[in-house]
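Any chance you could type out some protein's one-letter sequence along with its backbone structure tokens so I can compare the two?
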Amino acid sequence: MPIEIVFETHSWSQDNDRGIATGWLPGSLSDRGRRLAVELGERRRKDGLAAVFTSDLTRAVETASLAFAGTDIPILHDWRLRECDYGDNNGLRAIQLHRSRFEHLDKPYPRGESWRQAVHRVGRFLGDLPLRWSDSRVLVIGHVATRWAFDHLINNVSLEELVDADFGWREGWEYRLT
């Protein structure tokens, strides 16, 4: 049975304001981010969601908590939905980090992981989803690595193409896992 997946990025963080690539650091939402999280909830609360899955990093957890406060929709935290682990480069200026993104497609960041490893990690989440959520519509709140994994593993977009493309933020992406 198919699963409809709606993907939303975590809301705007204080690190986004400062141009920092947070990676596996927790990060916190900015005032703007908290407003955007509430708007996400207004967009998605009546979307027929069976569950919300979120990365366990603070900025994603805050997004889900604000968006779905006061609802009966279960919010489930999963570490596999985290951003790529930039290792020693967690917290580096984003412009500096992303200059060498292609170099780390297969080569892990120092004491971190590669983009391909991050996508594989998110793939394990996708593999487990049908065990409980078949024939459901779920929302996933995550990061760039989460979206790349969905684009690569569900829509067959090459990682080489994704690593070179602009992220192109928007209000949600929809996927169908069969």
Summary: The chain has eight helices and seven strands. The mean pLDDT is 96.
